[in-house]
Amino acid sequence: MSNFTDRERGFEAKYSFDLEQNFRIEAHLYKMLATWAGDKMGMSETESRSYAAKIVGDVVSNPQENGIISVLLADFGRHNIDMTVSEVNRKLEELRPLARAELLEE
């Protein structure tokens, strides 16, 4: 019975680790996307990083489906920048493997 319990604990630990890793990758991805958006809105590098930190904090603390995309599209609209959902999604998917690689390389 001990082997079964040990194995079960191992699976639980792996599951927990994977969830945490995926959360960290998503947060990093959102940061990269928000930094890109800040650049598109004409912000300086420092302003883009600040903007990204704020956006990621807001989206992580108040999760919604497509939350980051909705927030970015609203901000693009406020800056009179034409941006579509598909353009932001395309950039999100373009950045996804980069975010994963950057985080796993640490």
What does this structure look like?
The chain has 106 residues and is mainly alpha-helical. The protein has a single domain (2-105), classed as Major Prion Protein (Orthogonal Bundle). Helix content is 84%, strand content 0%. The protein has helices spanning 2-40, 45-61, 67-78, 85-105. The radius of gyration is 17 Å and the shape is elongated. The termini are far apart. InterPro entries: ATPase_inh_sub_z, ATPase_inh_sub_z_sf. Pfam families: ATPaseInh_sub_z (PF07345). This is Aldolase.
Characteristics of this structure?
about 110 residues, 4 helices
Architecture blueprint of SSEs:
Layout: H1 2-40, H2 45-61, H3 67-78, H4 85-105
- Based on DSSP secondary structure assignment, what is the total number of beta strands? 0
Which CATH architecture would you pick? Orthogonal Bundle
Helix content: over 70%
CATH class: Mainly Alpha
Number of domains: 1
Indicate the radius of gyration in whole angstroms: 17 Å
Q: Tell me the fraction of residues in β-strands, as a range.
A: under 5%
Helix-strand topology string = HHHH
Molecular shape:
elongated
Distance between the termini: 38 Å
Instruction: Give the integer mean of the pLDDT values.
Output: 89
CATH topology: Major Prion Protein
Count of helix runs = 4
Helix and strand composition category: mainly alpha
**Oligomeric status:** single chain
Poorly predicted tracts of residues: none
Give the biggest sheet. none
Protein name: Aldolase
Pfam families: ATPaseInh_sub_z
InterPro entries: ATPase_inh_sub_z, ATPase_inh_sub_z_sf
